[in-house]
Design goal:
Layout: E1 2-3, H1 8-27, H2 34-42, H3 45-73, E2 76-77, E3 92-99, H4 109-122, E4 129-135, E5 139-141, H5 149-159, H6 169-180, E6 187-194, E7 214-220, E8 228-241, E9 244-256, E10 262-269, E11 272-280, E12 284-294, E13 297-305, E14 315-322, E15 327-331, H7 341-349, E16 358-362, H8 369-373, E17 377-381, H9 388-399, E18 403-407, H10 414-421, E19 427-434, E20 445-448, H11 456-460, H12 463-466, E21 473-479, E22 484-489, E23 494-501, E24 504-509, H13 526-537, E25 546-548, E26 553-556, E27 562-566, E28 572-576, E29 582-585, E30 592-597, E31 602-608, H14 621-628, H15 634-654, H16 656-688
Parallel strand pairs: 3-4, 3-6, 6-7, 15-16, 15-17, 17-18, 18-24, 25-31
Antiparallel strand pairs: 1-2, 4-5, 8-9, 9-12, 10-11, 10-13, 13-14, 19-21, 20-22, 22-23, 23-24, 26-29, 27-28, 27-30, 30-31
């Protein structure tokens, strides 16, 4: 028999509840009046037994009336003899997905997760089959889908530990589904054991859905309310004094669900504690440390908090390199003369002990690749004709990563100037423009790309000053389509162009850097402009390298170069460059400081955990299940509707509820008759007594 009303059992329980209460009350000992006691004492034993039987029959009739009344409202019908009945064999194919991301290092969560997995393995029937998968940002299948339960447990105890990676539920669920495609049993299940850290779920990138014949059973490890403090990151800033550098560290500390308790943050560098600050935990704390007088060299260290239940994010590593002052070279034929380009550049950069850059001025005859490579940036000012080897040296220097700023001046010739930047495909020089011949006033800068690093500092402060210098002469350049115009004069012609070539850059300033063609050098914006150009052009200034766990590190050199990498736990790895001179170090699986050596050069870098995993706010498992569980297909909807229609048709055909109603009426009449007869007998006996 089946029922159309899905709430039948709930209604039955509610209807039978008063009967249950009545039975309990009947069993309780009650106080009986003295007269009744005398009546019962005088009543024959046979009559007492008969009375009890009548009361029992009466109670059963009342229970039956209520039960059949509930059954009638459920509108039952009988299943046809040839109907298909679904039978669940009981045996299951199950994939256990066990989260081993670094949030599972909180307290004893990893041990709890292993215990949960062991419990489900122990509860499996002999015919069940299980596969074991651990997952963080990528899943890994540890055992095949079979009933070798002892093997599964051994792998679980020996190989499952928490990693340093973040969580990705989506990839793990996809792998679980792939494994279950080869399952032997129709009942298929994915057991998802996790702390359900919230950042581990991202919307499906390919709209993948889990078939409805695979169910997900979430097993939540730990409590949703978890306290955690962690180092969110740091920023370094340098201030140079001659060849010494002062470093300021800005460190962000975040706390989750922590009260305002006191804790300490320490700075360690080169295995020695340098400083410590105590503070009250807040949602976000910004801490600052300073170190002065650091000489040229490699520096590694870490910041550390007082350890809490998730210790892995209480330490943050850093690596940086302090170099000598970057060297800037100016090449000009008039290098030694007053009011030359070199004179104004030297006055700007050579600030004795406070100098940020080391400045050298030489004649263009010194232009050679060896000389260029000793400097981080080159100003080629007001050049005349260069020979082929000099032009090739410039090309090789830029291609290798150098920056050259080419500026015009009194010695500029359009043909010679074009020869210099033609190999870079930057454009062509057309003519020298005397501004007063085309307009009444001298030219000024009118259009500037404030998004570019050279000019972005002027956007918020100093934009008006940038438009104050006046230029009487400039070189009209027609830029190539691959070149970028960074600034234009009010005449519409380019003032500053940029062309990337290889790993470096060529900048073309179409007027002079001295007073030959304008008053730019005696204007207050000249100095900040030059320093912005130098900051943009000089690459290797106090380099720091930081990566996240799992990120590859690029090494670049010559073909066949070998690098020896020392990991934080003192393991040594060897890398070999390919024919292009490139290789990647991919074994950044542990946070800490790394050291690389190729026999001639040392390189340092740091690896830290991705702090998105440190926010332990839990996600509702049902949200994940709802996001991946596929909705009913059209065929399934049709089949379900056909089932409902068949049931309704059977019910309308059989109308079992009518027969139940007749039965209820009969039972009600019998109950009324029996109750009335019992009352009459009781009254007559009392009168006789």
């Amino acid at each position: 028999m089946s029922f159309l009303n899905p709430y039948f059992f709930f209604a039955a329980a509610v209807a039978l509840l008063p009967i249950l209460i009545h039975l309990i009350r009947k069993l309780k000992v009650r106080k009986i009046p003295f007269g009744s006691l005398m009546f019962l004492r005088e009543m024959p034993k046979e009559m007492v037994r008969k009375r009890r039987i009548q009361d029992l029959i009466l109670l059963l009739l009342r229970i039956a009336i209520l039960a059949f009344l509930v059954l009638m409202f459920a509108r039952p019908y009988f299943i046809e003899s040839n109907a298909v009945v679904s039978i669940n064999e009981g045996s299951k194919s199950r994939v256990i997905l066990l989260d081993n991301s670094y949030s599972m290092q909180f307290g004893n969560y990893m041990s709890m997760a292993r215990n949960e997995a062991t419990k489900y393995i122990d509860q499996s029937d002999a015919n069940d089959e299980i596969a074991l998968v651990v997952f963080s940002d990528t899943p890994e299948q540890l055992s095949e889908l079979n009933n070798g339960f002892a093997t599964h447990k051994a792998i679980l105890n020996d190989r499952v530990t928490a990693s340093f990676q973040t969580t990705d539920y989506y990839k793990a669920l996809k792998l679980g589904h792939e494994i279950l495609k080869s399952a032997r049993h129709a009942s298929r299940e994915i057991l998802l054991i996790s702390d359900f850290q919230g950042s581990g779920w991202q919307p499906s990138p390919d709209n993948w859905q889990l078939p409805r014949n695979v169910s997900i059973v979430p097993v939540v490890v730990g409590s949703p309310d978890r306290d955690n403090s962690y180092i969110d990151g740091h920023e370094l800033s340098w201030q140079r004094n001659a060849d010494k550098v002062a470093v300021q560290y800005g460190v962000r500390v975040k706390s989750q669900n922590n009260s305002a308790s006191e804790t300490a943050l320490q700075l360690w560098r080169n295995d020695l504690q340098q400083d410590q600050q105590r503070f009250l935990r807040g949602e976000t704390n910004q801490m600052f440390f300073q170190e002065r007088g650091l000489a040229e060299g490699l520096y590694q260290g870490f910041f550390t908090l007082q350890t809490d239940q998730l210790a892995v994010d209480d330490r943050h590593y850093f690596s940086y390199q302090v170099e000598k002052r970057p060297a800037i070279l100016c090449l000009e034929d008039r290098a030694g003369r007053t009011a030359s380009n070199t004179f104004f550049l030297r006055s700007s950069f050579d600030l004795t002990e406070s100098a940020v850059y080391s400045f050298t001025g030489k004649r263009i005859s010194a232009l050679g690749l060896a000389e260029l490579r000793r400097h981080g940036m080159v100003f080629l000012a007001n050049p005349g004709r260069l020979n082929g080897s000099q032009r090739q040296a410039l090309l090789n220097y830029v291609e290798a990563g150098g920056t050259v700023l080419l500026s015009a001046g009194s010695r500029t010739n359009t043909e010679n100037f074009s020869e210099i930047f033609a190999p870079f495909s930057a454009g062509q020089a057309e003519a020298i423009v005397q501004v007063r011949e085309i307009q009444s006033l001298r030219a000024i800068l009118a259009e500037v790309s404030f998004q570019h690093p050279i000019f972005e500092v002027f956007a918020a402060n100093g934009a008006n000053e940038l438009f104050s210098p006046k230029f009487s002469t400039y070189l009209k350049v027609l830029p190539d389509s691959s070149a970028t115009v960074l600034a234009r004069f009010d005449t519409g012609d380019p003032a500053l162009l940029e062309k990337s070539y290889g790993n470096g850059k060529l900048l073309i300033f179409t007027t002079s850097l001295n007073t030959d063609w304008g008053d730019f050098p005696v204007n207050e914006v000249y100095l900040p402009f030059l320093y912005q150009v130098a900051r943009y052009g000089v690459k290797s200034q106090n380099v720091q390298e930081s990566y996240l766990v799992g990120e590859p590190v690029l090494f670049q050199g010559n073909p066949g170069d070998e690098w020896q990498i020392t990991t934080p736990n003192n393991e040594r790895k060897t890398l070999s460059a390919d024919e292009s001179g490139l290789t990647f170090f991919r074994e950044t699986i542990q946070p800490g400081n790394y050291l690389a050596n190729d026999g001639e050069e040392q390189r340092i870098f740091s690896v830290n955990v991705d702090v998105r995993e440190s926010d332990l706010t839990a996600k509702d498992p049902q949200e994940i299940i709802a996001a991946v569980q596929s909705p009913l297909s059209e065929n399934e909807k049709v089949a379900l509707q056909e089932t409902v229609n068949t049931a309704e048709s059977a019910e309308s055909r059989q109308k079992v509820w009518r027969y139940l109603l007749i039965l209820i009426v009969v039972l009600f009449l019998a109950e009324t008759y029996l109750a009335s007869r019992s009352t009459v007998q009781m009254s007559s006996k009392r009168k006789d007594s």
